[in-house]
Amino acid sequence: MNIVTVIQARMSSTRLPGKVLKPILDKPLLVRMLERIQNSKLAGQIVVATSTNHDDDQIETLCSENNFICFRGHLTDLLDRHYQVGKIFNADAVVKIPSDCPLIDPHIIDRVIKFYIDNEEYDFVSNLHPATYPDGNDVEIFSFQVLEHAWRDATKNFEREHTTPFIWEHQDMFKVGNVEWETGLDLSTSLRFTIDYEEDYQFIKKVYEELYPQNPKFGLNDILKLIEHKPEIAEINHKFTGTYWYDNHLNELNNIQEYKNKKLT
Asked: Which domain does 103 fall in, by range?
């Protein structure tokens, strides 16, 4: 199976512009994240998908300097970006990982991809519906045929911008699978490893400073042990836990609304 993993990245983040180039131990955050994804055994070809906007010339340059493949496409139509990358690289399946997950654990990436490979009946598999891992370990994988279907038929702005809502919202058309944390824990709304705010950056930077020098391949369990030993680190961005892009679209997203309600009861 030809798997292509797409990392969507741009400079014009609305909440924290330029976050992908913020320094983490003398390297840009995006490079640190790509280093982690390269430790995945199943990610296949890794492609950074950015926009054609002038601001994103910096991302293309960064990729060139660090030997990462870069594709440039539409600024807000991320669905089209993923489709074009899948088409160019003749993908059988496409993995979507946003660039705001610099602490993502490659073992989690492999677990989601392996579940998809081992269960051919699924069109789409993620660890997000419902989410159980700490926020910032987001992995979605889907066949190119399903991606093409969504690319052709999705019409709402948030469906185009966020790539996959058309798929996981239409479970009458597509068979959707989910990978839950094998521990049985659900820390998706109590720990936040993603980056949207300055406090998120300070948290991620601190985790790297604590763990990377001893073990550059540190994983989720290492982060959890660190937080248990030094709970003040988790407090840095705790006020933003449980905050997601889809909060503004709950009246349009039936499945997300269902999962959110379950977590609140």
From this structure: 3-264
pLDDT, mean of residues 132-137: 96
134: which DSSP letter?
A: P
| Percent of the chain residues past pLDDT 70, beyond the cut | 91
- Assign residue 17 the CATH number of its domain: 3.90.550.10
Q: What is the mean pLDDT of residues 227-246?
A: 88
Alpha carbons 15 and 210: distance in angstroms, whole number: 26
Q: Please give the C-alpha separations between residue 245 and each of 18, 58, 61, in angstroms, as whole numbers.
A: 18, 25, 28
The 10s digit of each residue's pLDDT in 164-174 is 999 999 999 99
Beta pairing class for 3-8 and 45-51: parallel
Residue type, 120: E
Rounded to whole angstroms, the Cα distance separating 70 from 114 reads 25
Nearest to 211 by CA among 188, 193, 199: 193
Task: Tell me how crowded residue 214 is: count the other CB atoms within 10 A of its CB.
Answer: 8
Contact predicate 104/97, CB 8 Å:
yes
- Please report the DSSP string for 40-91 in residue order: -SS--EEEEEEESSGGGHHHHHHHHHTT-EEEEE-SS-HHHHHHHHHHHTT-
Q: What is the count of structural domains for the chain?
A: 1
